[in-house]
Amino acid sequence: MTARPVKRSLTLRGHRTSVSLEEAFWDAFRAIAAEEGTPLNALAARIDEARQGDEGLASAIRVFVLTHYQRR
Length: 72
Prior knowledge:
This protein is of the alpha+beta class. It has three helices and two strands, in the order E-E-H-H-H. The chain has a two-stranded antiparallel ribbon with strand order 1-2. A hairpin with a 2-residue loop joins strand 1 (5-12) and strand 2 (15-22). The termini are far apart.
């Protein structure tokens, strides 16, 4: 597993965007989507809608993943 970000494409409300996350965050993000029974793109769109200010989508996903596992 690499600590370098890996760029992947997501579709948010019909628009393609690229997000760079470390593989561990991609794995956790996919696991959370699977736990919720939510498609990855839908979960990303939900996170995107909740962003505030100039927070980037990749940062928002990292915080979402971290918060998810801290609540356990």
